[in-house]
Amino acid sequence: MPFLSKTQIIMAIAALGLAATVLDLVRRRRLSEEYSLLWMVSTVVVAILGFSTPVLKSVTHALGILYESSMVFMIGLAFGTTMLLYLSVRLSRLGREHQAVIREVALLRHELETLAGREAPTPGAGA
After folding, report:
1. What domain range includes position 62?
2. Which of 58, 65, 96, 108 is the most buried (most CB within 10 A)?
3. How far apart are CA 10 and CA 8, in angstroms?
4. pTM for this structure?
């Protein structure tokens, strides 16, 4: 077995911990499957790099990065940036959908009040 650096050991343990956390959140219905897929893919990538010294070194060398630990930080930064962009897109779409629902509710409320106003008996008009 090749020598694993402290960074790789920490990275591998963190990846396993993150995978367990994501699976637990999905099991308790606190995280949707859609988001869990993104987290699990990133966890697998981190675990592969954490457990495989040759892969980590070759990817680091191919990208022209001097240290393996810098590669780990770059992966974390790339994942964080990707998740922020993805969540921003989702949040924007949800904001637009929310505004559309607000408009529909306002129109329905107006129609309901209009219909209720027509059917309300006039005061003084008796039986």
Report:
1. 6-90
2. 65
3. 5
4. 0.65
